[in-house]
Amino acid sequence: MKFLRLPLIVLTSLGVSLLASCSNAQQVNSPVTNPSVLVAKASTGGQIEPNTHTGTAHITLKTSAPLKIGKSTLMLTVTDAKGKPLAAKNVTAQMAMTAKEMKAMGMEGMGAGTAKTQVKPGAKPGMFEVQTSLPYGGNWELNVSVKDAQPSSAVFNLAVK
Questions:
Q1: 96 and 26, same structural domain?
Q2: Nearest CA to 132 among 114, 113, 117?
Q3: Taking the model in full, what pTM does it have?
Q4: Sign of dihedral through CA atoms 58, 64, 70, 71?
Q5: Pair (136, 104) in one structural domain
Q6: Which residues make Cβ contacts (< 8 Å) with residue 59, sequence separation at least 6?
Q7: What is the pLDDT of residues 63-96, one digit of tens each?
Q8: 67 and 123 together in one domain
Q9: pLDDT confidence tier of residue 111, bands split at 50, 70 and 90
Q10: pLDDT band at 128 (very low <50, low <70, confident <90, very high)
Q11: What is d(CA 38, CA 159) in angstroms, rounded to the nearest whole number?
């Protein structure tokens, strides 16, 4: 029985360490326990206004459901100041997670996170489909640029579960 005592102590210590590290990771993600975590607007589906915006075109984002890890399709609408659709052709989008957010999630040293993102023209002028594949949950930023028609940009903060 004595020969089993040391391996049991080692296994118990490892289990306690693993449990402690898991609970610490959950606390890091909480804006209550870590104020450096950015709180994104809830992305439960529906229309989302940008957090920041430049230029004269108005850019809005629609989601049909809450964003989750994996493939997602978002709809962008680009209109002029009067709400008329803009026939923009050069629209780009990038999905990124800031280095600060990565650090808050316990992924310090990895720099900013990115997700593959592609923009396709929608069925009507001024509408664009954004296809992305999100590798992990957390607070993401969708950076949108309209380079022709009425040059503009917008940043949307999105919570991904």
A1: no
A2: 117
A3: 0.68
A4: negative
A5: yes
A6: 50, 53, 76, 77, 78, 144, 146, 152, 153, 154
A7: 877 889 999 999 999 999 899 999 898 999 999 9
A8: yes
A9: low
A10: very high
A11: 10
**10: which 2 tokens?**
């080692």
Same domain? 12 vs 69: no
C-alpha neighbours within 13 Å on the C-beta side of residue 13: 6
Residue 48 in 3-state DSSP?
A: strand
Residue 86 shares a structural domain with residue 7: no
Residue type, 15: G
Q: What angle do CA 45, 48, 52 make, to 5 degrees?
A: 150
For residues 60 and 140, what is the distance between their CA atoms, to the nearest angstrom? 16
Give how many domains the chain has, as a whole number: 2
Render pLDDT for 51-63 as a digit per residue (tens, 0 to 9): 999 999 999 999 8
- The token pair at 117 is 């993102």
CATH for 64:
2.60.40.10
Among 157, 109, 117, smallest CA distance to 135 is for: 117
Question: Does residue 142 share a domain with residue 98?
Answer: yes
The contacts of residue 13 (CB under 8 Å, 6+ apart) are none
| Full domain range(s) for residue 18 | 1-30
Query: Would you report the helix, strand and coil content of the chain in percent, each value rounded to 5?
Result: 20, 40, 40
